[in-house]
Amino acid sequence: MQYAFIGTGNMGTILIESLIESGAIHPSQIIASNRTPEKLERLANKFTELKVSHNKNAAREASILFLCVKPHDYPVVLDEISESLTPGKIVLSITSSIGPAMLERHSHAKAARIIPSITNSACSGASLITFGSRIDASDKQILLRLFSTISKPIEINEDITRISSDLVSCGPAFFSFLVQRYIDCAVKETNISKDQATSMITEMLIGLGKLLEEGRYTLPALQEKVCVPGGVTGIGLEVLDKTTDQTFERLIEATHQKFKTDIEEVTHAFAKSNL
Ligand SMILES: NC(=O)c1ccc[n+]([C@@H]2O[C@H](COP(=O)([O-])OP(=O)(O)OC[C@H]3O[C@@H](n4cnc5c(N)ncnc54)[C@H](OP(=O)(O)O)[C@@H]3O)[C@@H](O)[C@H]2O)c1
Question: Which residues line ligand 1 (CB under 6 A)?
Fold first, then answer.
């Protein structure tokens, strides 16, 4: 089986590297293309058996095509590779604003959307899968098996795409922002150094992740366990309870508003294209 990766920026590269490093795909099964050649050269130097080419050739040779470009570049790429998008092939979007129905409308191929997360580069975290109407049971098995080597694939319906992406794909950025805030404040308000605070909180987060992974505690049970009656943790949690009121409501409102705009822009870009 040959896999095309069109677009080898951040996410295209992460996917290629993690799928190779997990053993799911051999470099010789990959044909990668990118608008500018420098990023391809880096990949070709790292994985000598990986083939690099241009979009049309990559699409022609592969059975499963990952489109790893920004949403507004999808119509251009789909137009360029349209003759290779035949009914036997699977074309994949990795972006929330382009779903399988949109890919099916603009090609004859089978389609799915798989939203990865930066956590997948550590063969960890979730990925979000929505299958199109032409995908059959054996295609599903192939895609689920592929993504289970680098993530926990979670099948989702179209209507929860944005919120699921917020949690899985944006989540690492949101939570590292909050953690960074905590570190910066600790450094500003106390004698601790940035290195010390960073190292302590990193170990805490790894430990927290392991506890959750092992299923020893639920999130509420963890809070209850750490929070001794009349203790310091409870005072801290009261502050958090008051100060984060509305924080996530606002975040969800903002991401969903941006999502709506992105879909309008993408729909407009498709309408203007030759597809
Ligand atoms: N970053 C994340 O954590 C994340 C997570 C989940 C999903 N995604 C999705 O992944 C997609 C890519 O995001 P990214 O962060 O990887 O962006 P990126 O770093 O900008 O990568 C996009 C790549 O697409 C290439 N490209 C653009 N037009 C092209 C064309 N016509 N033919 C071939 N290659 C083309 C660009 O080439 P140049 O070198 O010329 O710029 C660039 O290398 C987005 O749709 C995003 O929603 C990202």
Answer: 6-12, 33-36, 39, 55, 68-71, 73, 76-77, 94-95, 115-116, 118, 169
**Does residue 261 lie within any of the structural domains?**
no
- Report the SS3 class of residue 131: strand
In the reported structure, the alpha carbon of residue 94 is separated from the centroid of ligand 1 by a whole-number distance in angstroms of 10
Domain count, the chain: 1
Q: Pull the structure tokens for residue 56.
A: 């049309």
What are the residues facing 32 on neighbouring strands? Answer: 5, 52
Strand partners, 247: none
Closest to 130 measured CA to CA, from 147, 113, 150: 113
The CATH number for 12's domain is: 3.40.50.720
Q: Domain span at residue 54? A: 3-156
pLDDT in tens, 192-217: 999 999 999 999 999 999 999 999 99
- Tally Cβ neighbours within 10 Å of residue 203: 10
Per-residue model confidence (pLDDT) at position 221: 96
Spatial neighbors of 110 by CB under 8 A, at least 6 apart, are 87, 88, 89, 90, 91, 132, 134, 135, 136, 139
